[in-house]
Amino acid sequence: MNESAKEWAAEDYTYRLPDHWLLDDKNPSGYFEILHKAYVDRVVELVKDAGARTVIEVGCGDGWNCSRLVDAGLEVVGIDWSKNGTDHAARLVPKAQIYRGDVRDVGFSGRFPHPFDAVILVEVIEHIPPKDCADALRNIAATIRVGGTFVLTTPATNVPNNNPQHYRHFDEQTLKSLIEEAGGLTINSIEGYGNYPYRRAMYRRLRWFDNRYYTIKPIKRRILDQYRGNCSRTPLSTCEGFVIAMTKTA
Q1: Is the same domain home to 211 and 124?
Q2: Are residues 51 and 130 located together in one domain of the fold?
């Protein structure tokens, strides 16, 4: 738990610009770009593999993930509680339907009378106060049909929580307990993304080839390529975050 985390409000989550759109997902050349692409690509893959045609992203922010889902041929709805986040998303992803709302509201799922095939919650649950997480998962699951797919990603406790907007990072057992408390969901798989010890070692190596005085681009590129190969389906004991695929059973 991040003890410094206050109770954040929607107006605290503003985007000076749609920053996810600055990431180069075609040729990622930095640590966060590589990591972000790894878990978002896996989320889209899991949704597609489940045979989904319609999907809602809860916590869509500036719409970058929605655009990846649209590119994958899905019918997409995005919802977020940040007004300028949804403004960016609506402008940048015209093929998706974008709404503003709070997943903790009692009437949240009632806004979507036709159940979706899948829902994704990407790097969001760590932003929800712990006391509200189980109810939030129930509300989110209520938007999909029985047999539908729910994919969630979140940072792991292997990584220090230095983000004041993250109430907590998760371990495997805490996530399992939370999903059990929410009810009506069966876990199909829990995968890791990223490799925290490997990243720390990578930075120690990189400083010899990429620093304030010089950059040796071929070596930097090779080191980052090696990190890229250690970003997907990594051991839970060393992962930087989790990718959990679930099925709605009730």
Answers
A1: no
A2: yes
223 and 125 both lie in a single domain: no
Residue 108 lies in a domain: yes
Q: Is the four-CA dihedral 153, 154, 159, 164 of positive or negative sign?
A: positive
Q: Could you list the residue range(s) of the whole structural domain that residue 69 is in? A: 10-192+235-248
Tens-digit pLDDT profile for the chain (250 aa)? 565 556 777 676 776 666 776 666 656 567 888 899 999 999 999 999 999 999 999 999 999 999 999 999 999 999 999 898 999 999 999 999 999 988 888 778 788 889 999 999 999 999 999 999 999 999 999 999 999 999 999 999 999 999 999 999 999 999 999 999 999 999 999 999 999 999 999 989 989 998 899 999 899 889 888 888 889 999 999 999 999 999 999 9
Structure tokens given for 157: 């406790």
- The span from the CA of 102 to the CA of 87, in Å, is 15
Residue 107 and residue 225 in one domain: no
What's the whole-model pTM score? 0.91
Residue 81, exposed/middle/buried by CB under 10 A (0-12, 13-18, 19+)? buried
Whole-angstrom CA distances from 174 to 91, 154, 171 are 37, 12, 5
Which neighbouring-strand residues pair with 151?
A: 120, 245
Does 140 share its domain with 200?
Answer: no
What order of strands is seen across the sheet that includes strand 185-193?
A: 97-100, 75-80, 54-58, 116-122, 144-155, 241-248, 185-193, 232-234
Beta pairing class for 144-155 and 241-248: antiparallel
Residues 127 and 217 placed together within one structural domain of the fold: no
123 and 101 belong to one structural domain: yes
